[in-house]
Amino acid sequence: MTIMKSEIQARSIEDQTLPVCLADIERAAARIRDRVTRTPLVRSASLSRLTGRPVHLKLETHQPIGAFKLRGATNAIVALDQTARERGLVTASTGNHGRAVAYAAQMLGIPATICMSSLVPANKVEAIRALGADIRIVGVSQDDAQEEVDRLVADHGLTPIPPFDHVDIVAGQGTIGLEIVEELPDLSTVLIPLSGGGLAAGIAVAVKASRPQARIIGISMERGAAMHASITAGRPVAVREEQTLADSLGGGIGLSNDVTFPICRALLDNIVLLTEEEIAGGIRHIARAENEVVEGAGAVGVGAILAGKVKLSGPTVAILSGSNIAPDVHRHIIEGDAA
């Protein structure tokens, strides 16, 4: 399933006022430069042969926590004043954002509480626990976890670090776009895992500021794709969260979303949805042909290419957003036992 550009009405950045601008992303880059990894951008020989176009992979899997989320979380936390830090941090997460907050908080000596639903895989929960964060497992959706965050903020004064709908989070994720354009100035298309929209919004602003003709394509799963449903409806809407190989892409975008929704609605050119089998195909190909371990969310760009759901017209980048997949799940997929 695909939403095409004519439905989203994508426009150049110069045509509108958006919640995050290029200057915000440039400030974020300076703020986090010594705290996160500038990840490799590597050419995929296999995908370039398959498509007849240069295809590159942005390896956010090489961040210290194995996911891009460290950029936004670090930017947001470093930007806090001392009073906000001393109150302690709290967030809701499907796994990787919570790990990013826990990692950055530990690095800065700040207490952190991570609220997650029972759908978050055990390997992600244990990785967060190992970083010393207080963990709360609440309900069966990220919306349930967010309710616990709201309670802790109201009752105990903790400082919230939203997973995506926040200008500092979006600006931090946008630093990926700066790195891509710097290394691949003739960029034609970027394939971005799409959930709450922090990653897609940040990269879209950074890329279209210098390459307005570049296509920004959000990739999600068919099971509970909240941003897709919201853009289709023309407003943020609630969706039922479901089990999926792309677990990091689960959860809603928030009915009061005022940062990522307007940016994604304005700047995404297409949204493509994948079946579970297509997500598994991306994971399998990346392991076998690229020798990289990725979780389901990180494999959706490659999965979309393999499924023929995106047409490439020039140099393309697929964002491998995370590597935090349970080893047994990864093994079964590689062996062809799971989809």
UniProtKB/TrEMBL annotation:
Identify the keywords attached in UniProt to this record, alphabetized.
Answer: Lyase, Plasmid, Pyridoxal phosphate
Q: Does the keyword Lyase apply?
A: yes
- Classify the source by domain of life: Bacteria
Which InterPro entries does the UniProt record give? Ectoine_EutB, Ser/Thr_Dehydratase, TrpB-like_PALP, TrpB-like_PALP_sf
- Residue ranges crossing the lipid bilayer per the database entry: none
Query: Required cofactors, per record?
Result: pyridoxal 5'-phosphate
The chain positions of domain Tryptophan synthase beta chain-like PALP read 33-322
Give the enzyme's main class according to its UniProt record, as a single word: lyase
Give the Gene Ontology MF terms in alphabetical order: threonine deaminase activity
Q: Which CDD domains match?
A: Thr-dehyd (cd01562)
Q: Give the EC number(s) listed in the UniProt record.
A: 4.3.1.19
The name under which this protein is listed is Hydroxyectoine utilization dehydratase EutB
- Species for this entry: Shinella oryzae
Identify the taxonomic lineage of the organism of origin.
Answer: Bacteria, Pseudomonadati, Pseudomonadota, Alphaproteobacteria, Hyphomicrobiales
Q: Gene encoding it?
A: eutB
